[in-house]
Amino acid sequence: MKLYWAPQTRALRVLWLLEEIGRPYELHKLDLRAGAHHTPAFHAINPMEKVPALQDGAATVAESGAIFAYLVEKFPDSGLAPPVGDPSRGKFWQWLFFASANIEAAMTEKAAQVKLPETAAGWGSAARVFAVVEEQLAATPYILGETFSAADVMLASNLNYVLKLLKMFETRPAFDAYLERCRTRPAFLRAVARDSHDA
Ligand SMILES: N[C@@H](CCC(=O)N[C@@H](CS)C(=O)NCC(=O)O)C(=O)O
Questions:
Q1: Looking at ligand 1, which atom is closest to the CA of residue 51?
Q2: What CATH number does domain 89-186 carry, 1.10.530.10, 3.40.50.720, 3.40.1190.20, 1.20.1050.10?
Q3: Does any ligand 1 atom lie closer than 6 A to the CB of residue 64?
Q4: Per-domain boundaries in the chain
Q5: Mean pLDDT of 143-150
Q6: pLDDT value at position 199?
Q7: What are the transmembrane regions (predicted)?
Q8: How many angstroms separate the CA atoms of 106 and 116, rounded?
Q9: Mean pLDDT across 69-96
Q10: Is the distance from CB of 29 to CB of 6 less than 8 angstroms?
Q11: What average pLDDT does range 93-101 have in this prediction?
């Protein structure tokens, strides 16, 4: 597997997931400042010309959420998603999509100072998005309950980005405790080390 990646970008979440899975992969660095992602070859892999994107033999997949879905399906033994047929698999997809769709939208709302009626905005409002995540994380150590999953890789990556790196929103005790649990995982630490080492 080859991950099209650039340091300090959304590609880190896939790098973290690949470290959790523990199967061989290589990084293909795209120098975004030099425009290395604006080539016909990369356009064919991701027409958005953004990282991350994954190549796996003849298969290519872009969009972080889709790459997560591809990887948990390919490696069911990784234990990073409830098995097919398990009742909690629905909640797994719900939180994976929630994190990709609603936290990104909350960021945009804040950065662009957009104000839409809550009923019209698909994410409701940034306040509602963070309240919903807080409600769950105050009750259980991980987003699905007692067990860490790929949905936590996505959610913790997003929370880490908006709360700790960009400091766009006030953090909360439940988020800090959750991020502490997630960011001390050996796979996260390896991913961060690789993200800066290979930069
Ligand atoms: N929706 C995409 C977003 C990817 C994205 O925004 N990538 C940024 C880096 S964080 C990028 O490649 N920017 C380069 C550009 O647009 O020129 C995903 O979640 O994978």
A1: 12
A2: 1.20.1050.10
A3: yes
A4: 2-79, 89-186
A5: 98
A6: 67
A7: none
A8: 11
A9: 97
A10: yes
A11: 95
